[in-house]
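Box 3.1 A note on notation
Throughout this textbook, protein chains are presented in two layers. The first layer is the amino acid sequence; the second is a token string describing backbone geometry. Keep the layers aligned when reading.
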Amino acid sequence: MPSYPRARHRPPGATMAEGPPTTREAPWSVSTVSTKIRDWIDRLGTVWVEGEITQWGISAGNVYGKLKDCDVDATVSFTIWSSVRTRLTEQFTQGDRVVALMKPNWWVKGGSLTMQVYDVRHVGLGDLLERIEKLRATLAAEGLFDLDRKRRLPFLPGVVGLVTGRDSDAEQDVLRNARLRWPAVEFRTAYAAVQGDRAVPEVVAAIERLDADPEVEVIIVARGGGDFQNLLAFSDERVVRAAAAARTPIVSAIGHEADRPLLDEVADLRASTPTDAAKRVVPDVTDELARVEQARARLGMRLTALLTREVDRIEHLRSRPALAGTGWIIDRRAEEVTRWVARGTDLVERCIERHAGRTAELRAQLRGLSPQATLDRGYAIVQGPDGHVVRDPAAAPSGTALTVTLADGRLAAESLGATE
């Protein structure tokens, strides 16, 4: 049987080495080890720590949170008991930069280490939150958050683009709920890291790739929540500008109610969770079929009511006396025609009689002025050889052939010259 070296002497505070040496045949119990760890940690005492709050949750009056180093990637969990929380004079939230009086606390029963906070104070707005707020103000001034930029989602997209982590709960939530609502929906998934250093370039590349696909009609960017620190990628300027530049409508489904990443502001639609995104993008086939049936029923009822009303109107018209017997129309019109014909005849006769009298008057006037009337009274018209009327005896010297026109005929004569 191999022998194990005995525990070396350790400096004060390393209580694990105190007590009798352990062997395989004489090991310590778990409670002994856990108790010694607690005793050793208790010697560390309290210390003021500066950092940035990345998680702040309240349960049963106690606060459970995380504190992140402001310069490097290091985080510790802390607990503020309700008795200490009631003494705090300031309000705290994620992103606040604070200094906290902490003491490490080892829980013997659960074997876990937490930092118990006895006091906490603000030292200014957290660097991360300050940077995000400045970027928010810049993008808002550019108009990227304006409501008139947001596009309406298609009613029933044939292909839905999905940007999410590989094998993530968010992916399963979106796919499951969407297919439950509309089984024929098709997804094009572009996997990307959703936290860490690779998250920003991979999310940007995924959005651009799906936006370039002509068959994708809407893009969902989904993540299953997380603390403030894990959501920083979705407030990165490159991600926000990629979403703003996309021609395809963007749905942000980060799933975090306490903090709104900047992607929520620029997206065409913000969904509270990936499940909510699936419900907002894809209609429920059962609900749509029910709406179609309701519309058909309403249309049938309105059409039936319209036809019934028109049939009743026709029957009412047919029952009127004017349409029950049509002979009265002809009789009344015949009387009117007879009356108008008689009146027309009378008017024509009067007109003819009046104009006949006028014609007789004109005829009498014309006859009174006629040369023939003069001849009838015994006068004659003497014309020379050239047919001109002879008015002067000098115009017809002796021997001139004359033509004398009488009332009933003409005579040939010869002038004997002028007489006294």
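Residues 131-283 form a domain with the Rossmann fold fold (CATH 3.40.50.261). The longest strand covers residues 112-125.
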